[in-house]
Design a protein that fits this description.
single chain, about 500 residues, mainly beta, Methylamine Dehydrogenase, Chain H, 6-stranded antiparallel sheet, about 40% strand, WD40_repeat_dom_sf
């Protein structure tokens, strides 16, 4: 048995021993577990180091958290961890309420992706699991996966009863998977590896399949990309950005089964440009282009011009926090087919963002991030906690705030969307941030953001009338499972990069 697969099996076995209580059970007497949670998650606050403009609202431990996503047409958050897929009611953003749990041991599903589909029976909502090495759920035990390379569709239309709906094998890495159009998710792109990625056809949601890039050749053929390896992000203009080993490339995806390459980050994105050292020491991790529909070719870099690409660069094995992986801005000069038309603007490592104690001998790279309209970005920095970056001037990034715990591995940080009276996203963001943490589970923060006059308390848009602040918490995270997760992360990423 290969070492990586053996390690994956051990994590799966350990995950299977983790008791997952249903939401109703969380309302019982949990005096003992809560004491253990406090010791692990530092709920007393003594272990939290935060800037004055950030307030910790609550800790929601128990899940070994990896990633999460919000639905567009309902105030629902779906999170993924080593032990489960969980569905949360976020109608009161400051106090997320667990509504449904699917016990599911998986690794890594690093980017939980939400999708929706309008049907004659209403809106169908689902989440996508990208199986990197292993996945098994008692909901679908006959289809346990050891080896990875699979897309799993989890139906969350009934938030209280998430369940595995369907699966599809892929010919390339499904480390992450992403809907081309979340509002009408009929096609999904995979992270890929080497110089290829997969496209999945989800038009028949119960029977997804990989699309053959070259039907005239034997077997299912994947698609080519110069930057395969990690994540697809699709902007409001319908352009997909593929980040990975060799930087970022931008694609026109009007016809999702025939994507057309537009441009790339060139040598700087490959980490080989001596004028821009340190812009990619491992991979470009993920991306976002604000106001993409407003793009003005050749204009000065500005969010208003839709020509700034935000990325994180991950270098997970580098434990020197002065170079472990940066948050970055890039100038998209043209989208007319000109080569290497995406050029560096500015970047910040964890050590550039404050004088707080830096992690030693631990992960401190930038990871998932989320942009708030106005220019404040929430970034997960693993052991460096949740960092808030002021990107209002994309050429001069600086710290806006931070929240760092003594024992923590923040993988994902997200601004909670504003939902209207019908439960649909408005495009605005609250001042509430969720941090998904491998050690702590789900932390909730309020941030004093520019212009709202509220301060570091939940804004009115985050707290509807008549909600209950006292939310249930459950379980405790075994530290052995956290350690196994980190070991498996390193092993898998070495495998994907090494020939």
């Amino acid at each position: 048995m290969r070492p990586v697969v053996a390690l994956a099996c051990s994590v799966l076995a350990l995950g299977a021993t983790l008791g997952v209580a249903d939401p109703a059970a969380a309302h019982g007497d949990h005096t003992g577990p809560r004491h253990a949670q406090s010791a692990l998650a530092g709920e007393s606050g003594s272990a939290l180091l935060s800037s004055p403009n950030v307030t910790h609202l609550s800790a929601n431990p128990s899940q070994v958290g990896i990633s999460g996503c919000f639905m567009r047409t309902a105030p629902i958050l779906v999170t993924s961890g080593l032990d489960s897929v969980r569905v949360w009611d976020v109608s009161d953003a400051a106090h997320p309420q667990l509504t449904g749990t699917l016990p599911s041991a998986q690794f890594e599903n690093e980017a939980m992706n939400c999708g929706e589909r309008r049907t004659k029976h209403g809106t169908r909502r689902f989440a996508l699991i990208g199986v990197d090495s292993v996945q098994a759920s008692p909901d679908d035990i006959q289809h346990a996966n050891v080896g990875g390379g699979e897309l799993v569709v989890v139906d969350v239309t009934d938030p209280a009863a998430p369940h595995v709906l369907s699966r599809a094998p892929g010919t390339t890495s499904t480390h992450t998977v992403a809907c081309v159009d979340q509002a009408d998710c009929t096609y999904v792109y995979s992270a890929g590896e080497g110089s290829h990625f997969s496209i999945f056809d989800l038009r028949r949601l119960g029977r997804p399949r990989e699309v053959d890039a070259r039907p005239g050749k034997d077997g299912v053929q994947p698609y080519w990309s110069p930057t395969a390896g990690h994540k697809w992000n699709f902007d409001a203009a319908g352009i997909g950005t593929h980040t990975g080993w060799n930087g970022a490339s931008m694609w026109r995806t009007t016809d999702p089964t025939h994507p057309r390459l537009i441009t790339t980050t060139g040598r700087a994105g490959r980490g080989t440009d001596p004028r821009h050292p340190g812009w990619n020491d491992f991979i470009l991790h993920n991306s976002f282009r604000p106001h993409a529909r407003a793009f003005k070719p050749g204009s000065s870099p500005s969010f208003a011009h839709g020509n700034v690409l935000l990325t994180t660069e991950e270098d997970y094995e580098q434990t020197d926090c002065t170079q472990a992986g940066s948050f970055q801005t890039w100038w998209v000069k043209r989208l007319d087919g000109t080569r290497s038309a995406i050029v560096p603007l500015d970047k910040v490592e964890l050590s550039d963002l404050g004088d707080f104690p830096l992690p030693r001998g631990a992960f401190c790279s930038s990871h998932w991030f989320d942009f708030r309209p106005g220019g404040i970005v929430a970034v997960g920095y693993y052991g460096g906690g949740t960092q808030f970056v002021d990107a209002r001037d994309p050429r001069h990034l600086k710290s806006y705030g931070y929240a760092v715990w003594g024992a923590s591995e923040v993988w994902d940080s997200m601004w909670v969307p504003v939902y209207d009276g019908h439960g649909r996203q408005t495009g605005a963001r609250t001042n509430v941030v969720y941090a998904i943490d491998l050690v702590r589970g789900l932390d909730v923060y309020a941030v004093d953001v520019p212009g709202d006059g509220v301060g570091a308390v939940p804004s009115p848009s985050a707290v509807p009338a008549g909600t209950v602040a006292d939310r249930a918490r459950e379980g405790v995270v075994p530290l052995g499972l956290v350690g196994s997760a980190m070991a498996l992360t390193v092993a898998l990423r070495r495998r994907r990069r090494d020939p």
